[in-house]
# Entry
Amino acid sequence: MQNQLLLYGANGYTGKLIAKLAATYNLQPILAGRTEANIKPLAAELQLPYRIIDLDNKEQLENALSAVKLVLHAAGPYVYTAKQMIEACLQTGVHYIDINGDISVFEMLKKYDAAAKEKSIMVMPGVGFDVVPTDCIALQLKNKMPDATHLKLAFASIGGGLSHGTATTMTGKIGEGGAARENGMIVRKPLGQKGMWVNFGTKKLFVMTIPWGDISTAYTTTGIPNIETYTGMAPKVYRILKLQWAFNWLLRTEFVRNIIRKKIKAKPAGPSDEQRKISSSLVWGEATNPSGEKLTACISCLDGYSLTAHSSLLISKKILDGNFKTGYQTPSGCYGENLIMEVPGSKII
# Structure
């Protein structure tokens, strides 16, 4: 299993977590990124090989991929990085997985399904917190209620915080609004258009609608035509967001986004080890059929970053062991509704 995996973006917050945990899964990835000053010290610390790769240098990228079987792409924002990587993977016959959560990127990568099948490789975006636990709950509900026509998915973080990468990706979307799936189509909606209280089993929390990756992936997994995704939010913030229509134009300006980016860079790279140890995630789903019957499911799991490190490596190990399906796949669509239970710290509520 040595050096068959290339971890691109290993110097990022989540990339480092993945790199440091890899030995637990008997994996020795080649660490990769754009800048030697960021990658070399980590490679020396973990005694792992490394490569310096510019994603825009097609020859350099394909040369690096020709030596591996799988890429775990951990360098976002994926709207700027996924296309180069997937096309290089197709050119070299290398499996592609990432920890993306952007609906538009899921939809873009889905278009490579036929090409991936021709090359006998798998393309699976969203192998982290986006979207493994929610995807598993979606399939679990679909299996129990095959005639479901509506699906709601919600998650909430208890403790923890955001990494620079996550915050930067969110900044790129600020002012853009939300999304939902209606009658099989993705439609734009105001961010936080809907809010509700959800009983997560261990506690009741307020959630609001956001454009989570499952708007794309849960539909691919289940075929349920109407999907909404929610996240935990303070009710007072939700009330403020109801006024967003008045200032979204301002939030979309580069002037405001650059101010936010500077503030992000001034903060720690992400939650500390101690923060992650005491934080957790709660995930909830509800399916409804034409008769109005409802079915719910809840799980608790690790904080989003720790879960992402484990789930991405778990799936990497499966692929390198020959356990994969060719073409575009979703996590539970390929590995079943119980995939999340293979991740340490996950339990059904």
In short: The first strand starts at residue 2 and ends at 8. The CA atoms of residues 4 and 335 lie 21 Å apart. The two ends are 35 Å apart (CA to CA). Residues 304-320 form the longest helix (17 residues).
